[in-house]
Amino acid sequence: xxxxxxxxxxxxxxxxxxxxxxxxxxxxxxxxxxxxxxxxxxxxxxxxxxxxxxxxxxxxxxxxxxxxxxxxxxxxxxxxxxxxxxxxxxxxxxxxxxxxxxxxxxxxxxxxxxxxxxxxxxxxxxxxxxxxxxxxxxxxxxxxxxxxxxxx
Length: 152
Fold this sequence. Notes:
The protein is mainly α.
């Protein structure tokens, strides 16, 4: 599975907004600087997040962006979907839209299981978790396993 630069940047910028916790609007320039994200690229990402209702914005003096809701209600899955669409694609299609024949017929359940596992992580981790530096206990156990850090 690949996480696009767009999704990575969207999560990082959203984490900055969560850290501001609605105290004030944060400009795109400030977000770009804080996370070393190309400013023009970030503008497009923020537009997608706003279109999906994850962030709100205000133009003018004192304007900028802020989260549309509490950080504990915004999952990483929601952010990725807002900027990239469905979490798992196979050849540009959702696994549930595929069919396989013959010896490859049992491949479909593999793709569906992969999607379920990706969801199991990304739908549980929120911006509040990121800002607090914590993960759900079972996910932290995965991270604590040295094998998780190895590239076979």
